[in-house]
Structures are given as structure tokens and as C-alpha cells.
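User: I'm writing a short methods note and want a consistent example. For Peroxisomal membrane protein PMP47B, I'll paste the sequence; you return only the C-alpha cells, no commentary, since I'll be parsing the reply automatically.
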Amino acid sequence: MSDRIGAPTPSNPLPTVARPENQSQNVSSASTAAQSVAVQQSDNVAHALAGAGGGLLSMALTYPLITLSTRAQIEKKKANTGTLSAIKRIVDREGVAGLYAGLDSALFGITVTNFVYYYWYEFSRDFFQRTTNKTRLSALESMAAGALAGSATVMITNPIWVVNTRMTTRKQEDNDDPALPTSEGSSAAPSPKRNPSTLSTLTKIIKEEGFLRLFAGVLPALVLVINPILQYTIFEQLKQVLEKRRKVTARDSFLLGALGKLAATTITYPYITVKSRAHVAKADEKGNGMTGSLRKIVREEGIGGLYGGIAAKATQSVLTAAFLFAFKDVLYDAMVKARRKVAQKVV
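Assistant:
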């Protein structure tokens, strides 16, 4: 008997999967699934680009506060200096450019950091939504998505922030003056010095201290993954509550982002201090480990040593987060509209 299938007849129709109408349905189903994946990927990229753009704009607006807080974090506890006084002393010694030391590496860093973070966050969130068949994530699921995104981001971007911290503090061997003067009776300021470039700082670290030095402070940085987790979880939960009542505006995102970041920064600030000090420590300096560094700071400087520069940092973090979420929502909406226009033209 021949195995060849004969022409279809009423008594001998084609197999179900071989029928033209079902072949069309199979192709359509596969095409729909592929389109769904493509749309989701496009949406992830849109979120990532919006986050990167929002981070870049917010960082540029608040960078002088980062300079103040970072320098204060790596200084030993000394006489109190107000924010305005600290700004004046930096400007007197280094010019206005001193407030923006390391800005280029920071803008590059925040762009890469936010792109990676938001891409992986949206990817992880979509994974949880598909596996749980939920349209909304619980607080625990949001935190898990944030942890995955944050850990990937830290490992990829830590070298960028080591370079940025070195440039911001400008701890040079030929300059014995403290990075952030804290006493009213300081001597006359030396002439401003040219800021080192990002590339020269990177090259110097690798040449003098080795490539692995670019991953200094990675452990406290991984602990600090909880910062954006707390921030984004608080933001998402508050946003969901508000969305039940009305549409969330850019102003709402600004305020909710500020609240989330204020809480997260206050809780995690001691680890930010430890990370900053690890970034500027030389390779031959004896390491104390994360826990040892915390104990050492408390022993030598008191609890207050863990919170050096927190006023400037909290202000900067809150403003940056508020601007970030406001800019991100606006940029994301603009990208979605642009994508729809392109799709309509193609069709």
C-alpha cells in the first residue's frame, strides 16, 4: 500500500493541520506571537531610552549637589560647613567648573545606568506578568524585578562610577588641601587646576592600581540595589493607588518620585558613604570590608560620620528622582506616539 496521500475527497479529506484554512491560522498565530514579542521588546527599549534621557536631564540639573555630597562623604568629620559656604569655597578655589568636576563621566554613567536598569526592569516585570497572568505586580514582585535589574546594572556600570567619584573628589597627590574645606579659617586658595579628563582618570587607575580597582565598592553597591528597589516600589504602589482615582500626570510623577527617593536615600545612606570611600581608596590601602568600614567610621567619627553630606545628597536625590520620573513619563509618551505614527506610515 502506498504511503502517499491521495487527493482530498469527501470521504478522504486532508488532515486537519494540512487544510489550507488551518495552515493560514497557524501562520497567523505564529505571526501574532512574533509581533507580540517584537512589540514588548520595542516597549522595553522605549522605557529604557526614556529612563536614560530622563536621567541625563535630571543629572545635569542637579550635579553641583552631587559634588558637594560626594566630597563630604569621603572627608573625615570636621567642623561643620553649610552648603552655601561649601559652594563658595569650591568656587573660590576651583572656579565654577569645580562644581561640575566629572560631569561628563556622570552623564555617560547615568545614561548607561538608567538604560540598563529600565530595560531589565521592564523585561523582568513582563516576565512576572506573563508567568503569573497578572496585569499588576505585587510589592514583592516589583522588588524582585528591581533586584534583578539593579544587580545587572551594578556589575555593568560600577567602573564608570569609580572614575566619576575620583574625578568629583579630585584627590590629587600634589594637592594637600581637603576636597571640601570645612573650617572658616582656611588659608588663601591656590589657583584653580585643570580638571582631569575621564579617559586620563580611567587610564591612571588601570595603570597604577590595576583593572580590578574599577570594581572597588561593588559589594556596598550591590547592597544599594535596595535603593532603587525601595524608590521604584514606593513610586509604583503610590502610582497605582492614584491611578484608581484619576490619570497620573507628570506633576504627580514628580511628587511621587520625590517621596520614593527621599525614603530610599535616608535608609541606605550609610552604604552610599562606604561605597564612595571605597571608590577613592588606593589599591595598597588596607581594606576593612563593608562591615568593617561601617564600624571604623562609627568608631572614629561617630554615627554622624555615616551621614556626611546627607543634606545635599537627599536634596539632589529627591530632585533628580522627581525630574527623572517626570521627564521619563513625558519622553515615554512621546516615543509611543512617534512609534505609532511610524507604524501607520509603514502600513
